[in-house]
Design a protein that fits this description.
Keywords: Signal
Strand content: 5-15%
Number of domains: 2
Protein name: DUF3131 domain-containing protein
Shape: elongated
Number of strands: 23
CATH topology of the largest domain: Glycosyltransferase
Pfam families: Big_5, Glycoamylase
Strand order of the largest sheet: 2-4-7-6
Structural class: alpha+beta
Helix content: 25-40%
Distance between the termini: 125 Å
Radius of gyration: 33 Å
CATH class of the largest domain: Mainly Alpha
């Protein structure tokens, strides 16, 4: 037994020594390393990740790997396509001991995204495959050449007004004469956008885009339609059927009166009434009809049981279920002005102070991007807040207990401009020439863009409708939108609604509420026409004074 035990011990020592001195053979079923890796990327000599903006039309892309590359395997394994998948030709070469593939594309189109893809099938000279595929996004720059012949700034402003005016003249609804909601809206017309459109029609007559007789005839058609259209305690709905005058629900419960949209419509009608001031029977009848429409709006009833604020909506089916009080600061100042100005259903100053101004709670006072903002949300909010009410209300020298409105509108616009210029989110394309955040279409949707809700989309109406506040900055933007981007931004009814250089997206839409302010606010900048007409209305003067406003224009 002892001898057997000794033999086993000797064997165990022997094999123990063998395992230590000589590694076991490799199992042929285990995988071996047969790949190589990506090492470096340079686009036009720089590395900034895998997305590159503002490239020239023949960028040089250099991709370096850990092993020399077989040039013949580039075909089919390195592709360059646009976002639609269309292939783009390129020339591949090798350098750096064949470890670097140099891609030189054919001429690329401006403001276009291309994807350079390297598949794992790209072989090294030893036949190994790439460990992981690579995708590089290449976005080309704006073509800096002028798209249209240069004209004077004054001629450009006239051109913009005339072209944008066509939205309301050529595209006005054939039966009602009202403005369609957008260029794809069919019979859906918008009450508020039509108020802007009426101001645009007055501008068109004054600018001789159309004759006074033609302008009068269109306003007569609109007023005749409004006399028979559906109203809810005197207020019109947000949307109407342009053929029948019946309400088209804006949402399920928003199928009745919309007081804010109605206020925009009334402001437009009062402006037209002041313009068509002739003694002849047609203009006299028009003024009487407008007075009857305006006097029929039951502003005070929209206080909801005599409460201390105005309410936005009322429905015959859902009553006050929308439950949206009209509180400042936002685009609705003119709603309170039109309510206070009403000879028939006026509201007292206490409703303005408590409901709208919230006894001063609408004040801001903070400084953003070097500019102090008197009223409203952080960083000012979308720029339409500075446009809709002030298409008729002249903010120049206008003050009340809460703000100087000339300061407010200019500060709001400059904050928006300074934000876009600073571009804290690093969106491609933003600059002192390319700015303006407001409510607009965006890629696959709609949003109220602002410095606190910035998705990289610029709306021309934002900067252009602010020209009375920031003439230098707005004119810079207008020149850029027209001369540099005009082949993509300019259309049948003026500028399309919005664009994103970041996403290489350009809207094909035009909206009444965005086109109207361009025509009107450019005119206010040039001649103060609409401001002077609206502010000349006796009811407006009395109503604004009753609310505590002071102005050289009252």
């Amino acid at each position: 037994m002892k001898s057997i035990y000794s033999y086993i011990l000797i064997l165990s020592v022997f094999f123990g020594c063998k395992k230590t001195d000589n590694p076991a053979p490799v199992d042929p079923t285990l995988p071996t390393t047969t790949t190589y890796t990506f090492s470096d990327l340079k686009v036009n000599g720089t590395f900034s990740g895998f997305t590159y903006y503002g490239l020239n039309n023949i960028p040089i892309v250099k991709i370096t790997f850990s092993s020399p590359i077989n040039l013949t395997s580039v075909s089919g394994n390195v592709t360059l396509t646009d976002v639609a998948g269309t292939s783009v030709a390129f020339t591949p070469t090798l350098e750096n001991n064949d470890n670097t593939v140099v891609i030189t594309p054919s001429v690329l189109q401006p403001i276009t995204k291309y994807i350079l893809t390297v598949n794992t099938g790209l072989l090294s000279k030893t036949g190994n495959k790439l460990q992981t595929s690579i995708a590089v996004n290449l976005i080309t720059a704006v073509d800096d050449t002028d798209k249209f012949a240069r004209i004077t700034d004054d001629e450009l402003l006239t051109l913009v007004q005339k072209q944008t005016f066509k939205y309301f003249w050529d595209f006005g609804h054939p039966t009602s004469g009202l403005a369609r909601e957008r260029n794809t809206s069919g019979n859906t017309v918008t009450s508020g956008g039509s108020g802007f459109g009426i101001m645009a029609l007055v501008t068109g007559v004054s600018r001789n885009f159309i004759s006074r007789a033609d302008g009068l005839a269109r306003i007569q058609k609109i007023v005749a339609f409004l006399k028979t259209a559906e109203r809810f305690h005197g207020a019109y709905p947000h949307w109407l059927d342009g053929n029948t005058g019946k309400v088209i629900p804006f949402s399920t419960k928003d199928n009745g009166g919309d007081l804010v949209e109605t206020s925009y419509l009334m402001a437009g009608l009062i402006t037209a009434r002041q313009y068509f001031n002739g003694a002849d029977a047609n203009e006299t009848a028009l003024r009487n009809d407008i007075n009857n429409i305006y006097n029929g709006v039951e502003w005070s009833w929209y206080r909801k049981d005599n409460s201390s604020t105005l309410y936005w909506h009322w429905s015959p089916n859902y009553n006050w279920d929308m439950n949206l009080p009209v509180k400042g600061w936002n685009e609705c100042l003119v709603t309170y002005v039109m309510a206070a100005a009403s000879p028939t259903y006026s509201i007292p100053k206490s409703v303005y102070d408590t409901g709208w101004a919230q006894n001063g709670a609408m004040k801001n006072g903070n400084t953003y991007y070097g500019v102090q903002l008197p009223l409203g949300p952080a960083s000012g909010g979308p720029l339409f807040l500075a446009h809709y009410s002030f298409m008729g209300i002249n903010p120049t020298g206008l003050t009340d207990a809460y703000a100087n409105y000339e300061t407010q509108t200019k500060a709001h616009t400059l904050i928006n401009y300074n934000y876009c210029k600073a571009n804290p989110l690093g969106y491609y394309g933003y600059s002192e020439n390319c700015w303006g955040l407001t409510a607009s279409d965006i890629q696959n949707g709609y949003t109220a863009s602002s410095p606190t809700n910035d998705v990289g989309t610029i709306a021309p109406t934002a900067a252009l409708s602010s020209i009375a506040y920031t003439p230098t900055e707005s004119m810079q933007a207008l020149r850029y939108f027209y001369y540099k981007l005009g082949n993509k931004t300019w259309g049948e009814y003026g500028f399309y609604d919005a664009f994103s250089l970041k996403d290489q997206w350009f809207a094909s839409s035009t909206l009444a509420i965005d086109q109207g302010p361009i025509v009107v606010m450019v005119e206010n900048y040039r001649s103060k026409l609409i401001w002077n007409l609206f502010m000349s209305a006796p009811e407006v003067k009395a109503g604004m004074k009753n609310l505590g406003f002071s102005s050289p224009n009252l």
